[in-house]
Design brief:
- The chain is an all-alpha fold.
- About 60% of the residues lie in helices and about 0% in strands.
- The chain is built from 16 helices and no strands.
- Helix 10 runs parallel beside helix 12.
- The radius of gyration is 62 Å and the shape is rod-shaped.
Length: about 425
Amino acid sequence: MLARRASGSGGEGPEMSDFGAFEKYTKGIPTKLLKKMGYKGGGLGKNEQGIVFPIEAKLRPKKNMGMGFNEYKEISLPALHESKPVEGRKRKKLWSKKFERIKKVHITAEELLAKKQEQGFEVVQMNLNSEEKTKDDYVPMPELQHNIRLIIDLVELDIQKIDNELRNERETVVIFQMEKEKLKALAACQKELLSNMEQIVSVLDRIDNESTLGTLTLDSLAKAFADLKQQYTEEYKLCNLSCIACKYVLPLFVLFFEGWDPLQTPTRGLEVVSLWKNLLQVDDILTISNAASLYSQLFMEVVFPAVRISCTNIWQAREPERMLHFLESWEKLLPPAALQTILENIVLPKLSAAVNSLDPRRETIPVHSWLHPWLPLLGLKLESFYFTMRSRLESVLHAWHPSDMSAYYILSPWKTV
């Protein structure tokens, strides 16, 4: 090949037909290996920037001719040889600019979380088979850059995951702290309740001891339970101390009202009963019915028997003042059931008997003077007496003379009734 090149003209390069002719001695193995690696002919390299022809040895006109002799110009390679390296250099320049343009800026984890928070923690979607390519710009090492981006995305996901877990842990800590405070407050309340219960038990033991010795009085008992209700209001409701108080006060009330005549001294015991009504009743809606029943039971067992005996044996229907005075004095302390029982079982039978025995010709007290005062309390229940009243008055009015004014005084009070 060198002899052929030397015999030729100095300005001509080797012909393409002679390229690779030496492979006849190597059985074409180098070309086969190159084709397996993707070589399709032309310059070597990914962008075919390598020279096609090998560097040629040039024979100078004279043997003793050195470089630069008599301004001798070296024969340059054909344009084909120079075009590839020039293009390669241009590619390399574009490669470096692209590399500079896509260079990543490193940020901290805090900056990354702040950025993701502004973006609303968008989910990073990864596609291993997708790459953005442009025809004009060359991306150097796209597989490496893709892998690096993938690693960065995975790290960002890990950072976000760790941050979410950290946030959850902090929220859990806050919840546990609040629960701890609640339990501490509950423990303090339970401790205070236990201490209060111990004080209440000590007071009840003292009251029980005084009751056993017979030194317990209504005043001391009322003061003890009044102090308990004032100091331990919640425990007073919770433990239903009113029921315990009723147990101790009932025998003392029996002794206090023994021999009492409500018609003679209707105001006796008003202050005592009023005090115990407040002690036996509480403001709690759930226990108000029970407390009301306790007070009603105390009244019906102690006060009502004295009222029934005195009104049945002593009170007369034609003298309503004493009975009305008693009812007015005890108006705020009478349980509704007790007032209803007194009116229906004591007052009405007495009035009925008096009306049935009425004789207008012999009566010295006008009937309206002792019957009409009961209108505010009995109302329509007195209508059952009106028929008897008309029949009694009719029997005496048939012989009446207009000059007699007594009929006017008897009938005029009934006009409004």
